[in-house]
Amino acid sequence: MTLFRFALALSGALILAGCNTAAEAPAVQPAAQAATPQYVTRSDFRLPEGTGCSGEIARFRAVMDNDLQTGHVNREVHGRVIADLRGPEQACAAGNDGAARGALRTVKSRYGYP
Asked: How many domains, the chain?
């Protein structure tokens, strides 16, 4: 039991010694000088307008393009998503709005988009 108490006292002393450092705290940057985060959408980003399946597909494509630009997805994933959008786009172009929207929901779900 004595060895346990010694180890406990030693670890406590080491923890307390770590609190007494003489290093200076890093200076806080003013908000105006702070670097812009890499994963931020540009302020001029706007979702395309439109109705029906073509509007929904265009908006999702814009989100994917934005996610590629901001680094939220890589080129490989972006390419797979865009390739998978061909099915919904073809159904939409054929006038089958319901099938196009269903296929779009499937693509979104496959890649974790609501």
From this structure: 1
